[in-house]
Structure formats: C-alpha cells, structure tokens
C-alpha cells in the first residue's frame, strides 16, 4: 500500500496531543483512586486480565479527539476494537499497564500510533503520572520529551539487562517461567515492569538493553516499537522471527541483538 503524501511529523504531533489529553484524564482518575475513589473493574480473557472504567473513558476520549482532528480515519483500540483501513489507521492502548494502574503503581501509559499498511509511521507514549512524553516519527528519530534517544551498547551478553512480560494464561505463564529461568543465568538480570509500550521505550532510552515478550497485541507495540527502532534498536515484530516464537516481540541494542536472539532461541523461546 502506498503511503505517498503521509506527513509523519503531523501524525506524530496528533498522536502526542491526543495521548497527552487522555493521559491527563487517566492521571486524574489515578489520583482520585489514591484518595479513595472507587473505579469499576471487569475482566477479559482471565480473572487476572482486568479492564477498568477508566480504560474505556480514556479510549472514548482518544476516539473523540481523533474524529475531530483526523475525520474519517479508522481507529483500532484495545477496548473498542476496529479494523485497519486504507491510508492511516490509528492504533490505541488507552491504558497500557492497567494492573499497575489499579494497584497504584505509577508505571503505565497511554499509547497512540499511526500506521499505514500495518506499519507504524508515527506514535507517542505518554506517562500520566510523570508526564513523560515518548515519541517518534519514521525516519526522524525518537525522543523523550525534547531529548533525542539512543539505545545502549552493552559489550557482551553477561552485561545485558533484559525486559520481559508474562501472559494472563496460567498455563502459558508456567512455560514463560521456565524460559526466564533458563535466560536468567546468561544475562545481567531480567526486569518485568508490566507495560510493554514503556518497556520498548526503555530500550530506546538505554534503560533496558533488550526486551522480549510473547503474546502482545498490535496496540501494545505499535508506538513503542517505532520509538525503539528510531532510537537504533533492532526490532522484530510478531510473525517475523519464528525462531523466537510466532507471536514474539523483540527489541535489542545492536551490539548484542544477534547473540541474544540466539540465546533466547536456545532457552526455548519458540516453545513459549
């Protein structure tokens, strides 16, 4: 699909504006919860897979803002669904890290990305609590607020800090725990922070040297993977790395990307 005429800078500006507006709504709700306000909670794929009324409110706000700013362009959202269309499609995670949000942990974000032909061309990830804004446009670099991002450069695997995450299915979590146990002895350490978009941004900033997770949906990685790639990370999206598993997402600093990929495969990533 041709994307001639797409203005990545404009799309980045829209993504940032809309994600920032939604993040303000989410922040106010989070602060209200800290003061004792109750929030309606439901479940999706499992009892541990939660969705709150704030997730729905945030996505409605994003959809309303996009309808005003980019009328006629389809939206694919975690809560409201949708399908991709010709031209630009917006991919939205209204709260990435809902469990963290619900528990009061400040590591969660609103993620908004513009895709063309299934590929991200612009995106923003905004943290409601800290106010940090992560953003990127294709070919234009990645930024944390106004600071340009560059990935880390670990010299060997033993000094590599790796982020990951776990599925809601207890059966799959058991397989993931075996995989993580195999990996743990071959890298510096493993981090599990609970928000895929922010883990990908952490790779972009050099806060993590690499990140690998199975079972992510498009809205989990659409903005964060672009930010990581624009900061110089080697990024593999679901379906592109069968040696890591058909639904694996992988982002890593180039200095260790290939040897770490082999180690992940050796540790049984494809069987997770």
TrEMBL record:
<keyword id="KW-0378">Hydrolase</keyword>
<feature type="binding site">
    <location>
        <position position="96"/>
    </location>
    <ligand>
        <name>Mg(2+) 1</name>
    </ligand>
</feature>
<comment type="function">
    <text>Catalyzes the dephosphorylation of histidinol-phosphate to histidinol, the direct precursor of histidine.</text>
</comment>
<dbReference type="InterPro" id="IPR020583">
    <property type="entry name" value="Inositol_monoP_metal-BS"/>
</dbReference>
<dbReference type="InterPro" id="IPR033942">
    <property type="entry name" value="IMPase"/>
</dbReference>
<dbReference type="Pfam" id="PF00459">
    <property type="entry name" value="Inositol_P"/>
</dbReference>
<feature type="binding site">
    <location>
        <position position="78"/>
    </location>
    <ligand>
        <name>Mg(2+) 1</name>
    </ligand>
</feature>
<keyword id="KW-0460">Magnesium</keyword>
<keyword id="KW-0479">Metal-binding</keyword>
<dbReference type="GO" id="GO:0008934">
    <property type="term" value="F:inositol monophosphate 1-phosphatase activity"/>
</dbReference>
<feature type="binding site">
    <location>
        <position position="95"/>
    </location>
    <ligand>
        <name>Mg(2+) 1</name>
    </ligand>
</feature>
<feature type="binding site">
    <location>
        <position position="220"/>
    </location>
    <ligand>
        <name>Mg(2+) 2</name>
    </ligand>
</feature>
<dbReference type="GO" id="GO:0046872">
    <property type="term" value="F:metal ion binding"/>
</dbReference>
<dbReference type="GO" id="GO:0004401">
    <property type="term" value="F:histidinol-phosphatase activity"/>
</dbReference>
<dbReference type="InterPro" id="IPR000760">
    <property type="entry name" value="Inositol_monophosphatase-like"/>
</dbReference>
<protein>
    <recommendedName>
        <fullName>Inositol-1-monophosphatase</fullName>
        <ecNumber>3.1.3.25</ecNumber>
    </recommendedName>
</protein>
<dbReference type="GO" id="GO:0006020">
    <property type="term" value="P:inositol metabolic process"/>
</dbReference>
<comment type="similarity">
    <text>Belongs to the inositol monophosphatase superfamily.</text>
</comment>
<feature type="binding site">
    <location>
        <position position="93"/>
    </location>
    <ligand>
        <name>Mg(2+) 2</name>
    </ligand>
</feature>
<dbReference type="GO" id="GO:0046854">
    <property type="term" value="P:phosphatidylinositol phosphate biosynthetic process"/>
</dbReference>
<comment type="pathway">
    <text>Amino-acid biosynthesis; L-histidine biosynthesis; L-histidine from 5-phospho-alpha-D-ribose 1-diphosphate: step 8/9.</text>
</comment>
<dbReference type="GO" id="GO:0007165">
    <property type="term" value="P:signal transduction"/>
</dbReference>
<dbReference type="InterPro" id="IPR020550">
    <property type="entry name" value="Inositol_monophosphatase_CS"/>
</dbReference>
